[in-house]
Amino acid sequence: MTSTEARVPLVARAVPFLPLGIIAALGATLAYVVRLPCRTGGWNDQVSTYTNFCYTDIYPLYFDRELATQNPYFAHVPFDKQVEYPVVLGEVMQVFSWIARWVEPDRVAQAVRFYDLTVVLLGVSLVAGVLLMAAVAGPTRRWDALWYAISPAVVLAAYINWDLVAGALSMGVLLAWARQRQVLAGVLLGLAIATKFYPLMFAGALFLLTWRTGRWRPFLVTMGSAAGAWIVVNAPFMIFAWEGWRRFYVFSAERGVDWGSPWLFFQNKGWPIVGEGDVSTLGMFSLAALCLGIAVLTLAAPRRPRLAQICFLALAAFMMTNKVWSPQFVLWLVPFAVLARPNWKPLALWQLAEVWYFAAIWLYLLSQPPLSRNDLGIGDDTYFTAVWGRIITIGIMMAFVVRDILRPDNDVVRQADIDDPAGGVFNDARDRFTLASVLR
């Protein structure tokens, strides 16, 4: 960097990001508008909630997890009523429930205020995630972040749960790594894992690229910082509220097959083995097999893959083999899918599949007990077209990313002599270990 470039004011550097921030704020506002039919009373009637496609976990959990009266993790409630999220989200819920109780004396009004406060945080998280993603993508691909800012699937799923918080932290991890701020990247990774568990998959992506390049010190610094940050935020609850703290981990281990998962289709249709076996075991073996394939691909590719490509493949593998695939999980994948391969055709096809799934899940729930409104809902076969629509379209994107890795000249991100915008120490790094070197 020249001295002239170093003196560019922060405001001047921020100007190119301003339109993206405004559009992301518009996306956050549209997501709020989508749920207005529920916010104005529809949440009190399940049929109205599903027919208006405005369900959220935020409002009912205020009551169901006793946030109106008690603190997460320390609550004197049955184990299955404890908050089933990692500690960062639990404490976010705690703070906003305190404010809601202070502002509103009525419990119903408190729940609405709790929702509004949470939406403000999620909207800010979306804007932050979009801006961070644009910075990661670099000046030549900055506008790719529009997919995260205002795509239909993001707008529809934005406020179902607290996933956008983890999304902003995850983009922060990538940007810190890209800028070679390994300690900061590790701290953000630890906080992201303590918010939602899926960012743990990014550690595997970093490990594989570290193995190939031999850049072990930055990797170890990042992992050490991540472990330290995770311990700092988790240790107080592990010590003083063990039962509440472990609820998330017990729930994740014991949870059966749930909505959106391909395992639900196999069980529903009575397929041998995949529809009859233990889903936890099947899911772990399936994920392990896909991760092994990603590892072989990373070490065998003619040119080192980009970090975003491996993160996308790992995260997609995690989602496709999971016991549950909620509609808001699209928020996990959008920024990584776009950074991995910003080609609008497969992305648009996938977005259509996600929009169809978003509609299908609520229509399907209308036809299930206890509502059993077959006149309003859809049946098994129609619902499972939406489940497989997501799987197939994500599989198509994964195949294109694999092709780009095997034929790096096809990778649009690597045009104009760009190696890896998010690579950090991997950017332009030489290979230290590949499968080809072993086989020589």
Can you describe what's shown?
The protein has 440 residues and is mainly alpha-helical. Helices cover 67% and strands 0% of the residues. The chain is built from 22 helices and no strands. The chain has helices at 3-6, 10-14, 18-34, 36-39, 46-51, 58-64, 87-103, 107-137, 146-150, 152-157, 163-178, 182-193, 200-213, 216-240, 242-254, 262-269, 279-300, 307-320, 330-340, 344-367, 380-406, 435-439. Helix 8 (107-137) packs parallel to helix 11 (163-178), helix 11 (163-178) runs antiparallel to helix 12 and helix 18 (307-320) runs antiparallel to helix 21 (380-406). It is globular and about 65 Å long.
What share of residues are in beta strands? under 5%
**Please, how many helices?**
22
Characterize the overall form. globular
Structural class: mainly alpha
Compute the number of strand runs.
0
**Euclidean distance between termini CA atoms:** 40 Å
H/E series, N to C? HHHHHHHHHHHHHHHHHHHHHH
Question: What kind of sheet is the major sheet?
Answer: none
Radius of gyration: 22 Å
| Share of helix, binned | 55-70%
Low-confidence stretches: 1-5
Q: Mean pLDDT across all residues, rounded?
A: 93
